Amino acid sequence: MGVKLLLAKAHVEGIKNYDVYRREGGYQSVEKALKTMTPEAVVEEVKKSGLRGRGGAGFPTGMKWSFIAKPEGVPRHLVCNADESEPGTFKDRYLMEHIPHLLIEGLIVSSYALGSNDTYIYIRGEYAWIVDILEKAIAEAHQNGWLGKNILGSGFDCNIHVQRGAGAYICGEETALLESLEGKRGNPRIKPPFPAVKGLWERPTVVNNVESLAAVVPIINMGGEEYAKIGVGRSTGTKLISACGNINKPGVYEIDMTISVEEFIYSDEYCGGIKNGKRLKACIPGGSSVPILPANLLLKTAKGETRYMNYESLSDGGFATGSMMGSGGFIVLDEDQCIVKHTYTLARFYRHESCGQCSPCREGTGWMEKLLLRLDKGEGKMSDIDLLWEIQSKIEGNTICPLGDAAAWPVAAAIRHFRDEFEWHVLHPHEAQVRNFGLAHYADPLQVPAGA
Amino acid sequence: MSDEILLKVTIDNITVEVPAGTTILQAARKIGGDVTPPAMCYYSKLQGSGGKCRTCLVEVSKGSEKDPRPMPKLVASCRTTVMDGMEVKNITSPRVLEARAGVVEFLLLNHPLDCPICDQAGECHLQDLSYEHGKQGSRYEFQKRTFKKVDLGDYIQLHMTRCILCYRCVFTADQLSPKREHGVLDRGDHAQIATFIQKNLHNEFIGNVIDVCPVGALTDKTFRFKNRVWFTKPVNAHRHCDKCCGEVQLWLRGDEVFRVTARKDEWGEIKEASNGKTGWICNECRFEKKNLADWIIEGPTNVNRHSVISQNKYVGLVKPTETFPKIMKGRNPKLLMDIHSVSEVNKPNIHLSQLERPAHSTDFNQ
Amino acid sequence: MVQFSEQQMQEFNRLVKRYPEGKQKSALLPVLHLAQESFGGWLSVETMDYVANLLHLEPIEVYEVATFYSMFNTQPVGKYMFEVCQTGPCMLNGSDDIIAYIKEKLGINVGETTPDGMFTLKTVECLGACGYAPMMQLGKHYREHLTKEKVDAIIEECRNNAARNN
Q: Which residues bind [2Fe-2S] cluster per the record (chain C) (predicted)?
């Protein structure tokens, strides 16, 4: 059993309610921070903890906090990014649904650290019922003196508001989120200026993921140094992984980043192996945007070392033979899944979610989707595969926001590792409609001939 | 002004000094020529414009004197301000040229390429862009996105199929009129400029959206299909107008005024008027004053020789009677452009073809 | 005529109060949600103009936002909208079969509404329920681990609810 910091109490009966949460030790970090620490000291603890943003980019949270501008007389804001929309990711939802007070507690401490008197939770519009859960938790926190004016006599005022989005993946990008929070279309802003200088209503703003903010609670309770001892290297603390796809036990798991990918997939404590006794073909370890890896590269790195569930190990080998931790959306594909079709659904997703502001993303995502659909239907040409590669390379890095990269990487990785499957679709158009390519040489250790 | 701090920025090996806050694109325009990246969405007179089309991407090979690290990604030169000691590569960067060709291909993907029947042909920035940076042919084999033509009142026609979503017209309406009535609807590849409800645009400065539109998406209904721009002759003219500066460009054929537009500078943007403000013109001047008698003609407009609009403008031109030897006091140049053989400054042992970049005087001082 | 009831107006005021003075535009998304729930599940031009007026915005600002977000319907929809996820993880768990089944069962295509105005079928992209796939959103809540039997039960449930409310 690994260390559990966020979900340790998630299954205590009635933990959604304030009384139970408090009895289980909730809101201690607020007491500790507001009574015994300065805001700067809180930032310092978070820095020491080595906590990396859990939304996907993995940027050190403490460092992000220290960038916030503090001009005289201008209010600052903390915004919680609960617009969880990356395919394969549903960890924030789980956390908010099961233990909402943990997020509220983390938000109060973080708001104190950043000097945010009005803090906003921007939650994806589809999570409509979670808004009620959060608002109830906020109301309870108010009644018990954890929110409002002069909290615990510290002189610090704080209110938390929940804002619902309305269906746009792009609003998970922090500047698009701020635009949306201002009541506009979710078009990402052109940076600079960065939100830390000019964010919400042109005021200094920090945007953090739900899980990152929840992690502030154990960091303050145990101290940044203690927190940093959990995990390995620069992957400190625990990480929520939402596992889905063709596995026996899909769900959200808290891991301490010391277990191997193999253990995560096959042990009964986590995913419980592949469904229906099938074999593992491929996996996207960090949400749909990160590169897909075939089984042989997933379980072991290109150097033949065991791959672990942490930032460094998952990205070992770069994009050539590695992937990324991303948001922790762990999508597993079994031997009967078609990579072309799967990649097509992702391309369709990104085309649907492109905001349309900049040309490479607006036009490129649609083009990739059409080509992939054609390939999937067995109407593609060999040159389409090269064309896809070229299109993704023209999108990557050339767009306003990371959605362009996010749309390009899955296509690139699918072609990089599964090119023969794409070619098989072109060469056997009719066969490709009635059966799948199978495992081929992707799986380790058994060799299965292509198309067998 | 003299104590203003100037920053040094080097673009394609040419160094200029610009005030703080200048963007890379503005600095490059100061240098001019091929060093200037093309811009389809940026419009210096419209606040907030730029950053969207990605044609002006450049490589920053040195961030600044203080922090010389290169920027990992290509940046939009129209929205990136220069730092002291910054080094930028535009046409000297293969990465930039490749990315730009990609952007051109993306922009043309759903563009109808109906130039033969488009009023904008001849003064279309997308045409220029694709000639200069695009590739021949398209690899797109799917049906193009189309929209129905929309009338935005008596004067303006919206041909959304040609639009490249630069947002300039939205900024124009926002910044020139008290009430914006059109905007960008939907998202992604089906985003469109529209009013949502069939609506006429009324504001008296709204005609300027035609001038800022880089393509033929917004055209002047009073000029539609009347003529090709290269058959008309542009002259500068003005009239007294109590709404706008009244300084315009008339597009004539004989004595007939076919079209009235604002005056444009070499970047295709509306010029400053004599009152020092941007020379936006009102609907009355643009659409309703089509008699030559309404205007005081100042003289022909300077047209770039490379523009198709300069075609036929030199008919009947008298060649200068002086010959070269006469101008050069008896010496007849062998080849005007052959600086290698005639230069006494450049050292012949320095091979320009072996330099990776344009030659600079310092190359000859070794 | 489109007009919030007194209770809806209270909710409107609560939403607007969350933002600083002069930033009432920020309430646009929540207010549009409120309007959509209040006025028949979609946003007519009249509704959007009403919201624009309440928030002191130009109508085009509301149209721009309403057409950007996929949860806002600018066309009428059925009483019950089945929004079935079809992205990668749901596809891996058979969402295609579920969509085909609903189509067959209701006799409509994706994007269409049954003639009685009861059901609309819509496909959506990832709703963040990948571990509980296949799934769909019905009103405020998710229906997860869908099977053909479950779909039957949901359709039955909707019909019963509609009958009871009539």
A: 85, 90, 126, 130
